[in-house]
């Protein structure tokens, strides 16, 4: 869903289902600052839970007058601040810390390459004019939001730069940190629940990934009639509901242990295993006899967990009755 259509979609849901209040959970790209302002001014019945972009977080801690400061981030516990009715919940993810470090090092190096190019040209006398040096410098110094980590000097025929190690060390305290923002009242949701609801977005992402690329393959849509396209998507949603229920029932064999392995490996492997079960029919003398192919121990376990019924005789034979 494009962020510009968020409000319209919420309004349609409200009108169709008579919803009085909505708590909309969206990622950084879906609920932007502009969307938040729109919700807070014209749609008071819409509450939101989202996270601010890292660049915005950096701007907050850079502002000495803003209550959100680096020293308030706790790597073990959640810290909450309320500023003008808006809740800021300061979080830390240790698994994300390494990613933030690597990203910063990569962008610092990219910036250094550009600054080194300017330095080389100035030292060789190819770039002398102060204004032209400044133009080149400001073209690259903050291209990747790295300006704050560099100290630069320039004049006629002169250019120098160095890393601001003190500031780099200061901001490195934010590695793995992120801020969740919400206007849901504290008495309605505690900070832990707010964070959990935001983290639940991963299930939405998994659902779309499953529908697009792994199990359900909603695309390609080989229909031209709008109603048939809707029907195709609706059937995919029903299939996802079945898949979701199956994953819940089979959670014990799908859950990975410390070796990163699990008995089922994946739901696709479970389906492939069950696909080898066949039910045959024999008609003789007016009688119809059902026969089930041999079922191994693993298939029996899956069928029992799914509470699947093949037929009465098969249930007795497999001892799957409760």
List the defining traits of the structure above:
single chain; two-stranded antiparallel sheet; 322 residues; five-stranded mixed beta sheet; alpha+beta; 9 strands
How would you explain this protein's 3D organization?
With 322 residues, the chain is α+β, with helices and mostly antiparallel strands. It has four domains: 115 residues, no CATH class; 76 residues; 44 residues, no CATH class; 44 residues, no CATH class. The chain contains 13 helices and nine strands. The longest helix has 30 residues. It is elongated.
Question: What is the structure about, briefly put?
Answer:
The protein has helices at residues 6-17, 33-42, 54-62, 94-123, 130-140, 165-172, 191-199, 201-214, 226-249, 251-254, 267-274, 297-306, 312-318; strands at residues 22-25, 46-51, 79-83, 86-92, 150-155, 158-163, 177-182, 279-284, 287-292. By secondary structure, it is α+β, with helices and mostly antiparallel strands.
The biggest sheet, with number of strands, parallel, antiparallel or mixed sense and barrel status, is:
5 strands, mixed
Radius of gyration: 29 Å
End-to-end C-alpha gap: 45 Å
What is the element string, with H for helices and E for strands?
HEHEHEEHHEEHEHHHHHEEHH
**Are there runs of 5+ residues with pLDDT below 50, and where?**
none
Looking at how many chains there are and whether they match, the oligomeric state comes to single chain
Total strands: 9
Helix content: 40-55%
Strand-pairing-aware structural class: alpha+beta
Order of strands, main sheet, comes to 1-2-7-4-3
Shape descriptor = elongated
Assess the beta-strand content as a share of residues: 15-25%
Number of helices: 13
Mean pLDDT: 83
Number of domains: 4
């Amino acid at each position: 869903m494009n962020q510009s259509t968020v409000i319209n979609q919420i309004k349609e849901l409200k009108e169709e289902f008579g919803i009085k209040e909505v708590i909309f959970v969206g990622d950084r790209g879906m609920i932007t600052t502009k969307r938040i302002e729109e919700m807070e001014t014209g749609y008071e019945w819409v509450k939101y839970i989202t996270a601010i972009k890292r660049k915005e977080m950096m701007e907050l801690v850079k502002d000495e007058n803003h209550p959100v400061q680096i020293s308030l981030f706790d790597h073990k516990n959640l810290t909450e601040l309320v500023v003008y009715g808006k809740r800021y919940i300061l979080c830390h993810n240790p698994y994300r810390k390494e990613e933030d470090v690597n990203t910063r090092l990569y962008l610092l190096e990219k910036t250094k390459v550009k600054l080194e190019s300017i330095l080389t040209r100035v030292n060789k006398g190819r770039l002398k004019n102060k204004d032209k040096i400044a133009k080149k410098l400001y073209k690259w110094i903050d291209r990747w939001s790295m300006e704050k980590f560099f100290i630069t000097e320039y004049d006629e025929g002169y250019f120098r730069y160095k890393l601001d190690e003190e500031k780099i060390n200061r901001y490195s305290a934010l590695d793995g940190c992120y801020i969740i923002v919400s206007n849901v009242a504290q008495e309605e949701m505690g900070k832990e629940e707010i964070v959990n609801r935001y983290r639940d977005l991963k299930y939405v992402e998994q659902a779309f990934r499953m529908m697009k690329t792994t199990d359900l393959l909603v695309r390609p849509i080989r229909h031209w009639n709008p109603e048939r396209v809707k029907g195709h998507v609706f059937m995919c949603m029903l299939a996802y509901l079945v898949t979701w229920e199956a994953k819940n029932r089979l959670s014990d064999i799908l859950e990975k242990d410390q070796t990163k392995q699990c008995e089922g490996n994946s739901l696709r492997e479970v389906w492939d295993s069950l696909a080898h079960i066949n039910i045959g029919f024999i008609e003789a003398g007016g009688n119809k006899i059902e026969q089930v192919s041999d079922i191994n121990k693993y298939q029996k376990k899956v069928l029992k967990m799914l509470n699947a019924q093949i037929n009465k005789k098969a249930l007795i034979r497999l001892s799957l009755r409760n």
